[in-house]
Design goal:
The structure holds 2 protein chains of 2 kinds. By secondary structure, chain A is mainly alpha-helical. In chain A, 77% of the residues lie in helices and 0% in strands. Helix content of chain B is 59%, strand content 10%. In chain B, α7 packs antiparallel against α8, α8 runs antiparallel to α9 and α9 packs antiparallel against α10. The chains are: A mainly alpha, B alpha/beta. At the A-B interface, α1, α2 and α3 of A face α1 of B.
Chain lengths: 125, 239
């Protein structure tokens, strides 16, 4: 997938989300925890769907990853999820294989960046 | 009350934070089955629906809702990352009035929801209109609401009895009229609208089923009003 948005997490999205609640830090920390937990689960579903060549399950898991990633500002994850969703829809497992590996790598980067934000170690948020 | 149908928890947290900030009351459903249960039991004014749920396709859900005459007119805003023209057409045919694209953008989402809520059926007469009509005080309206709500219960009981034994139609029609009058007195516009729409002066099975289903929702609306959980202008005066 080229080009992909950079960096992994759009901090302006998180700034916007932070402003929704009076206790913005707690709200962001909760959102990040939910996102990481749900996405970890969805990645497992994705891998299982791929192993079983279940295109419908692959499409659904990729769609879910795309939606929540976009909402939290993880744009590269969202873009990769969208491409993987299309591959699932088309039953194109040859394209899906490297995409899953790429998505896993990107998820690690997103988690690192979100951890910094959620722990308040990023001064801009 | 706004019904949010969304299976993704991150999106749910973001939308509910927005709805809170907009001072709307809301309830959440994470599956199609939960959504239908809330539609059948709660006074819903607007639905915000994800189009892909774990147990249901958004279009099927909209169709189910559309086929229930006591909630068919509740507007729906579809919330989706992408929608083809066929999906949009099908959704609009079943009561969708707008599509909001994910990811959520605060300003446009707020504007679209505020615009959509204006198209929701009016549930209660405004306090200002009611005070012009009758010299109400918050002390006196609450007992009147209680009495009207009790009458809704009596009507439900009479309709339940009519399902098993032929009722005296003159008596039943008179009861419906009294309940309608009591609802109108306390400004329960939606209750009056539902009675006018669903009561045809006969005891056909569908008439009774639909009117009783509407009464479940209307009684919940009275509960909400009496408990002060609505942001309606009249409620602020009552609460």
């Amino acid at each position: 997938v080229d080009p992909l948005p950079d960096p992994s997490v759009d901090l302006s999205v998180l700034e916007m989300l932070r402003s929704l609640e009076d206790d913005g830090d707690a709200f962001i920390a909760g959102l990040v925890a939910t996102y990481v937990s749900d996405t970890t689960e969805r990645m497992a579903v994705l891998r299982k769907a791929f192993a079983q060549r279940n295109s419908e399950a692959l499409e659904r898991a990729a769609h879910a990853i795309k939606g929540s990633s976009a909402n939290i500002g993880a744009r590269r994850m969202a873009a990769l999820g969208g491409t993987l969703q299309d591959a699932g829809k088309a039953g194109d497992f040859a394209t899906a294989a490297p995409m899953i590996a790429e998505l896993e790598g990107e998820f690690l980067r997103v988690q690192d960046r979100l951890a910094i934000v959620a722990n308040g170690r990023y001064s801009g948020i | 009350m706004i019904l949010l149908i969304e299976d993704d928890l991150v999106t749910c947290h973001i939308i509910t934070a927005l709805l809170k900030r907009m001072r709307h009351t809301y309830c959440e459903a994470h599956t199609g089955a939960e959504a239908m249960e809330l539609l059948r039991t709660q006074p819903i004014d607007l639905v915000i629906a994800d189009m892909m749920l774990p147990d249901a396709n958004g279009i099927d859900l909209l169709e189910q809702k559309y086929n229930l005459p006591y909630v068919s007119d509740i507007p729906v805003v579809c919330c989706t990352a992408q929608a083809d023209i066929e999906t949009v057409e099908a959704a609009m045919g079943f009561g969708a009035i707008d599509f909001v694209k994910k990811p959520i953008v605060v300003q446009s989402f707020t504007q679209r929801i505020n615009r959509a809520i204006e198209r929701a059926p009016v549930r209660w007469e405004s306090w200002r209109d009611m005070s012009k009509r009758m010299p109400f005080y918050s002390r006196t309206i609450k007992p009147m609401l209680g009495i009207a709500q009790q009458m809704l219960g009596e009507l439900d009981e009479a309709l339940a009895n009519a399902e098993t034994a032929a009722p005296d139609m003159t008596e039943l029609s008179a009861l419906v009229s009294r309940v309608r009058g009591a609802a109108a007195n306390v400004g329960a516009l939606r209750t009056v609208q539902q009675i006018d729409k669903l009561w045809h002066g006969t005891i056909e099975e569908k008439t009774i089923e639909h009117l009783r289903a509407a009464l479940v929702i209307e009684r919940a609306g009275f509960d909400e009003m009496l408990a002060g959980r609505t942001s309606n202008e009249s409620m602020q005066a009552v609460g």
